[in-house]
Design brief:
CATH architecture of the largest domain: Beta Barrel
Number of helices: 7
Distance between the termini: 33 Å
Oligomer: single chain
GO molecular function: peptidoglycan L,D-transpeptidase activity; transferase activity
Family: Belongs to the YkuD family.
Protein name: L,D-TPase catalytic domain-containing protein
Strand order of the largest sheet: 12-20-19-22-15-16-17
Strand content: 15-25%
Number of domains: 3
Pathway: Cell wall biogenesis; peptidoglycan biosynthesis
Coiled coil: 280-328
Radius of gyration: 44 Å
């Protein structure tokens, strides 16, 4: 089809001349994103999405390209399809993308919430079929594959490049694998959905039905007396039970209490860590000051010792000289009796030697005293340094303990936040395992058994969409992927899971939680943190 353009015209006067100008019509959001989609463009008008569904029977798909006429049509099936009564639908939500109908349907516990046409992957770039999760959201995203092409309101469902985002919706598959959304609907959907909500991509349209089964895990309740390590309880209380009047908390309420306590503990630990770090820095500075003082008094002691030794040597020299003069005088007494210049010089020398000896003796005493004082100061400085080092050691110990406490409380805070996220469970017939994750992180896996293990189960999604009336249990919706396999009830009944594993699941299971029962193992999109349990249909 050739693209159609419409124009408007204007006459603009400039410098005395009139110019006839052809102006294109204002670009729509659809045309704008076609310029930057990074994928082959189809310049066709996208059909408008219906705003509501009136009937309770299966709604007709949006007016978009249908499946190949050679394929048999699916039988009309009665189902609940009530639109949500307001613009803020109850959570959790989950979506179904139909490849054949080129549409996305958003559901909650009341049924259909909204619907829109989409464009999925064209031939050679097919959109993967399976059960996925919204694992990331960016209000404005630029493609790292298609030269930075803008992809506003991007909601990622795989880390291999598949997402829902604004794009051209021509009425048939035209993308390189992503699910393109009309701009208005993409913005609307962005405000409705949350990370952790399920997105099903199916070859044909599928829809949820209300579901109940004793084979589903049951949520466990917690006593509200305190928030801490508790054994979950379940079931009605006996009239004589001492805990009969103690309120019960569902797993989400319990997680909220854990989060509040963990946040308070983390704040207190951070404050204690800050104080411990400040005390450690002060102790380090005191040790440094004490070390400098010790170095100074040790230097003073060294100087005093050198002066004392010099004074001692001077005293010894003066004493020796005086003794030598006295000895000489005793050997020549006539020299001292005659009034001669030699006698006068000898007398002066003896007097000087005596005076030098006296001064040297005085200096010796002075510097010896100074050396003793310096030694005492050194001892005091060393004792002060030892004391400061002991205080520093204590400060380091408190800092280490505060650091460990802060790390533990931060971990507990992160764990409590994770408990608020939807629980994700996958039961795989191929692996004979149940995998459990929460907050896009693995919790545990465990072996299970499957009755008649060589017979296929199919792929079924069970979503806890609401709490029951008394708040002690859950309401479920079930969705079965296309194929001639077991029903959801039959598939569940063939799974044999240990009671303790069911109990561990129940401790964290609340609205938004989902269980996949499938013949398949976790897909290659399931990895470490930041991914969820998904299955890809072959």
């Amino acid at each position: 089809m050739r693209p159609r353009f419409s124009f408007r015209y204007a006459v603009a006067p400039l410098f005395g001349f009139s110019f006839f100008i052809v102006l294109p019509q204002p670009a729509t959001a659809l045309n704008f994103f076609a310029l930057f989609s990074g994928e082959p463009s189809r310049a066709e008008t996208a059909p408008a999405a219906p705003t509501h569904i009136q009937t309770a029977t299966r709604p007709k798909p949006a007016n978009v390209a249908r499946r190949d006429a050679s394929k048999p049509a699916r039988a009309s099936v009665e189902r609940e399809a009530r639109p949500a009564p307001d613009s803020s639908p109850g959570l959790p939500l989950f979506g179904v993308v139909s490849i054949a109908d080129q549409q996305i349907s958003i559901y909650n516990h009341n049924g259909l919430v909204t619907r829109s046409p989409v464009s999925t992957g064209m031939a050679g770039h097919g959109t993967p079929r399976g059960i996925f999760t919204i694992i990331g959201r960016e209000r404005y995203h630029e493609s790292n594959i298609y030269s930075g092409a803008p992809m506003p309101f991007m909601q990622r469902i795989t880390w291999s490049g598949i997402a829902m985002h604004v794009g051209v919706v021509p009425g048939h598959p035209a993308s390189h694998g992503c699910v393109r959304l009309p701009a208005d609907f993409a913005a609307k959907l962005w405000g409705m959905t949350r990370i952790g909500e399920r997105i099903v991509i199916s070859p044909d349209d599928v829809w949820p039905t209300a579901f109940s089964s004793s084979s589903l895990p049951e949520p466990k309740m917690y006593l509200a007396r305190e928030t801490g390590a508790q054994t979950p309880v379940y079931g009605p209380t006996e009239s004589g039970d001492e805990d009969a009047h103690v309120a019960r908390l569902n797993p989400r309420q319990y997680a909220e209490r854990l989060k509040a306590k963990a946040a308070a503990d983390a704040l207190s630990a951070a404050r204690a860590l800050k104080e411990a770090a400040s005390a450690e820095r002060a102790a380090q500075e005191e040790v440094a000051v004490a070390a400098r003082e010790l170095a100074a008094v040790e230097a003073a002691q060294t100087t005093a010792q050198m002066k004392a030794e010099a004074a001692d040597e001077a005293y010894l020299a003066a004493t020796a000289k005086a003794h030598a003069l006295q000895e000489e005088a005793s050997l020549s007494p006539e020299t001292l009796t005659e009034e001669t210049p030699r006698r006068r010089g000898f007398a002066v020398a003896i007097e000087a030697a005596a005076k030098a000896r006296t001064n040297a003796a005085s200096d010796k005493v002075t510097f010896a005293t100074a050396m003793i004082d310096a030694r005492e100061k050194v001892q005091a400085a060393r004792a002060a340094l030892v004391s400061k080092e002991a205080k520093l050691s204590e400060a380091l110990g408190r800092l280490s303990q505060a650091t460990e406490t802060a790390a533990a409380t931060a971990k507990a805070d992160a764990e409590s936040r994770k408990r608020l996220a939807p629980l994700s469970v996958l039961v795989s017939r191929k692996d004979r395992k149940v995998y459990v994750r929460q907050g896009l992180s693995p919790l545990f896996d465990a072996p299970i058994a499957v009755t008649d293990p060589d017979r296929p189960l199919g792929s079924h999604l069970f979503i806890a969409t609401a709490a029951n009336d008394d708040g002690s249990g859950l309401q479920w919706s079930a969705l079965t992927m296309p194929g001639q396999f077991e029903s959801a009830t039959e598939a569940l009944e063939r799974i044999e899971m240990a009671p303790e594993i069911r109990a561990r699941i129940g401790e964290r299971l609340w609205t938004g939680g989902s269980i996949i029962v499938s013949d398949l193992p976790p897909s290659n999109e399931t990895g470490a943190d930041g991914t969820d349990l998904t299955v890809k249909l072959r």
